[in-house]
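Morning run. Coffee first, then this:
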Amino acid sequence: MAGYVYHNANPKGKKTTDCVIRALTVAIGIPYEQVLKELYETQLKTGYCLLDKHCFERVLDAHGFIKVKQPKKWDGTKYLVREIDSLTGKRCVISMANHLTAAIDGSIHDIWDCRRKTIGNYWVKP
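And here it is:
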């Protein structure tokens, strides 16, 4: 079972709609402002909003993260965030409906506990 650690990477301590920036900050391990700068530069190059998956996927790719499609169980049911034990020892970004979070060594680092949500795709640092 995945654990949960309260972590707000927002430098002003705000609880706002910046989950993409917070998740990348935690997973990549660089300052919030640097992630924001890389997202803005990618937005200028691509035309996609900095919070759009087309934008943040490019930033993750540039930092060596690999996209993994939504995992499913043998019976076709989907995994919940709390069920991803295979991420122990890794850094990753996990997508779910309307949210992005980061996991380090199998623990979710976020401003709220999203372990009950269904996992979409995720990006892992090998």
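The chain has one domain: 3-125. Good start to the day.
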